Each structure stands twice: as structure tokens, then as C-alpha cells.
Amino acid sequence: MAKLAKFKTTENETSVEAFIAGVLPEQKREDSQVLIEMMGKATKEKPKMWGSSLIGFGKLIYTSPSGRAVEWFKVGFSPRKANLSLYFMGIDAKVRESLLLKLGKHKTDGGCVYINKLADVDIEVLKELIDAGIAGK
Prior knowledge:
The chain is α+β, with helices and mostly antiparallel strands. The chain has 4 helices and 9 strands; from the N terminus they run E-H-H-E-E-E-E-E-E-H-E-E-H. The chain has helices at residues 16-21, 26-43, 93-103, 123-135, and strands at residues 11-12, 48-50, 54-57, 60-63, 69-72, 75-79, 84-88, 107-109, 112-115. The strands form 2 sheets. It has a 7-stranded antiparallel beta sheet, with helices on one face. Strands 4-5 form a two-stranded antiparallel sheet. Helix 2 (26-43) packs across helix 4 (123-135) and helix 3 (93-103) packs antiparallel against helix 4. It starts with 10 loop residues before the first strand and ends with a helix.
């Protein structure tokens, strides 16, 4: 196993509820609450803040293609200004691509999946992505 690297974005004790309360616009805040419920139910974990704007569930050791290993969350998201950034860390690339074909309106960049709002995607497919990320499939 690769040596665990120091990473500036780490789990912390910042209040998820306080962070979400400040999310604007209201639709993004409501979608964030739905994502917290979905990911919490799927992982059976409480949401934790990672850095100043990421909400993660569970933990794993993620090794990047370059061989750098860091502690990270299994699934999570960030309600960014432009969109909701979704992360499914343990998911197999082929499974991810197969599910993304059915997800609905989204963009990808590296490991991130970007959606504007939950109404743009198939919630059942999103649940499958979350489950696959948790299971490492």
C-alpha cells in the first residue's frame, strides 16, 4: 500500500447543518438536504464536513492514478455556486459510465459528476451510483 499523503482537505467538526443553512439559492439548499438524506440512508453514516465545502459519508483510502494515497470519503457532494458536485469514490469506471448514460443531464470532469439540480436527473439511477460507490463496485 502506498504511503498516506498529507492532504489539506480533511474531515473536520464543522457543522454540516450550519453549512447547508448558508447554501443559496433555496433550490440548491433543498437538493443538498435530499442528497444528505439519500447518502446517509445508503451509507448508514452521518454527514461530515471535509474541508470548507465538501460533505462526505464514510471513509476509505483512495489511491490516485499517480500512486498518491489519501484518506477520503466513500460518497459525497459539494453545493458549489455553479452546480452540485457529486463524488462516488469507490465505483468501478465501467459501472460508473454505464450508470451515467442513464442519469440524465450532467457533466463530468475527472472523478466528479456535476448536476445543476436533482430534477435534471433520474433519482433511482443516482441511488445506484451512490450504492455502487459505497460497495466499491
